[in-house]
Amino acid sequence: MHALVGPMAVGINNQSSRTAYTHHLSSPAQVSMNIFDILLRLIKHLASRSLHTGTHFLGFGLSGLRAVGSNPTVKDLFRLITLGTIVEVGRMVGEKGLEFWQESEFQMDDFAYDWVTAYLENQNLWNESKTFNVLARNSAVYKPCGRLLPMPNSGKMTNHPAPSYEAAPTQSPSLLRWRGYWMTIRKRSPRYSDAENARKGTLMITLWSRNTRILDDFVSTAREFYYANSQLVPRKQFDVRSEPSESLLNATFFHGDTAYHWVLEYLISIDAFNSTMNLAVTSWQSDLGWPPARAADLHSSDRKVLSDFVAHVKERYSGRDKVSVHLANGNGVWGRTISKSRRALSTLLLPGSTKETILNDAKDFLAGKEWYSRAGIPHRRGYLLYGAPGTGKSSTVHAIAGELELEIYVIPLANAGMNDYTLGELISHTPSRCILLLEDIDCAFPSRVDHQHAQNHHSEPRSAVTLSGLLNVLDSISSGEGRITFATTNHIDHLDPALIRPGRMDVKVRIKLHAVPRMKARFQIEFRLASTVQIEGVFKVFFRPLDAENPKSIDESGTKTSSLPDTEEEVARYAADFAASVPTDTYSIAQIQGYLFTKKGDPKAAVEGVVEWVVAQTQDTLSKSSVSGSEFDSEEDDDDHPSPPPGYARPLQVEPECGQADTQLVQAASDGGADLGRGKQGEFESVDGVDDSAVSETADT
Ligand SMILES: Nc1ncnc2c1ncn2[C@@H]1O[C@H](COP(=O)(O)OP(=O)(O)OP(=O)(O)O)[C@@H](O)[C@H]1O
């Protein structure tokens, strides 16, 4: 007789109704009809009948039996029957007595399997095993009181699921003594070793008792243990491959979408993925961690729950001290997103009120949507930041984005794979309120210079993005309303003249590119090489005095152990000395920072070594320009705008004189360099409504 027991009474929620395990009582023997019994019954029956019919038949029958019984053959027959009956009864009694075990089978893809294996692990059942299956699926957050994961370092809380170990299938059963009963446990390998069947292993438990309640108790205990000791989400409910339940809300957040990042960051912060089984391993260097499943079920049918949830995570996300930077890849899709710390505007060293001007203008623009709409002007605004490398163009964009709480979408126009189509795809997938950063716009579309250069050198022009392609996408209807575009370039002179020359067809679009002004013209900001004020500023940032942020380093004997100054005045004196030795409009702040890093913590050494550094830089520049014959010059020869861009300092054309002291040489260098930018030092052109012709003239000179 086989018995199927289940679903069990241990279920609390739905999953239990799906949980079944089987156990079998060992089969009893068939009850044999005992001939002897039949005979006796027959005799009794006959005897009772004979009472009714008459006792004379009894005497006759008995004497007949006696006569038959005296026959030796019949005697032997009766003996045989009696003996057989005794043997059969003994066999039945023995069989019944020995059948006191129950067998249960747990399928690997069933919940009960997880409960029991986790519980058995806790009972140290697998301690003897030498071969383990390591599963993150059964993982749990370690709890000091629990013994679920007796692993090294298990006390460490991480966002990642801790693996659990279970003995690999083995032929020899393990023995467990549980509440006074013995159990033998055997794991069976999947029948096939292919991936699909790999999860079809089973766990066989033999309980050496006939009491079925013991087995029920065992499974219930395992289940309670499992849920009490782990923060597991029933895996089947969250399997993204499973069909979404119609009774639950299903929200899908697409990777690359901003909402995805809100939700992802929030879920990671609340350890929501501790029990995930589907980990995507990524080499992305995102501090958001790894992107896991994209779909989640909300256990509610109320839509407000979903919108509240999204609102909450969004608020959390935007409240943090970070700026999200989305990076385009060459296939026309937004790829990685990195989260950068906000840069305080105060850390930007820009002359005058440049940064405040940009910020206020951008704020004004964002607040002026209605004005644009009434005026029938697309609500977009653009800024062209140009200047030598390392002068702070990108830093300015990041600082402004932080102030405005906007995300940055960066399109490196010079990147491989960038063409008109991919550019269009990218721009059509930017949100309306964001900062679009077009880096190295001079590399976007090959100018006639590039074409000519490419022809001369039998090579391809630099980029596959065309001027009209760029202008089209910037001007298209799909371009977001409320978007701020920053374009950066190190070589304003490399921009195609068609882009900046007024009176051409492109001029109209040029306005779109550089700015969509409220009234007129474009907004250009030139980033110049470091002025005296900036050189002093960067020095002061590096060698802040020993104050609250920079606590005094004094040892027990009262001796100062740091070379940092004690007061602002002292730092200012060093800074002035330092700036006096560095030619203005010659080096970018990034270059100066690079030098100061080599003198970290020692302002005196920084001042003392700077002259030597300047000389080295100058000689380096001279040797480069003499070796290359100046690429800049060679371009000028076949260029129709041969002069250097305004503010772009040429390599210093200073011949060091023999025997000249370093300081004199520096002075000469300073003079030479200053020639190029003289008169504009410290005077950044944050020009709203700058005269187009001025720029055109510059480019066409
Ligand atoms: N004006 C500045 N104020 C503060 N830091 C600056 C400034 N200019 C440059 N730096 C520092 O120099 C480094 C490079 O700056 P950034 O990337 O902003 O320059 P960039 O002009 O965008 O250069 P590129 O044209 O090469 O992209 C950064 O570490 C930045 O902090």
What does this protein structure show overall?
This protein has five domains: 142 residues, no CATH class; 64 residues, no CATH class; 71 residues, no CATH class; 194 residues, Rossmann fold, CATH 3.40.50; 140 residues, no CATH class. The N terminus and C terminus are likely disordered. It is an alpha/beta fold and 701 residues long. The N and C termini lie far apart (104 Å). It is elongated, with a radius of gyration of 44 Å. α12 links the parallel β13 and β14. α2 packs antiparallel against α3 and α17 runs parallel beside α19. The protein has an eight-stranded mixed beta sheet with strand order 11-10-13-14-15-12-16-17, with helices on both faces. A five-stranded antiparallel beta sheet has the order 1-2-7-6-5, covered by helices on one side. Adenosine-5'-triphosphate binds next to α11 and α19. Belongs to the AAA ATPase family. BCS1 subfamily. One of its GO terms (cellular component) is mitochondrial inner membrane.
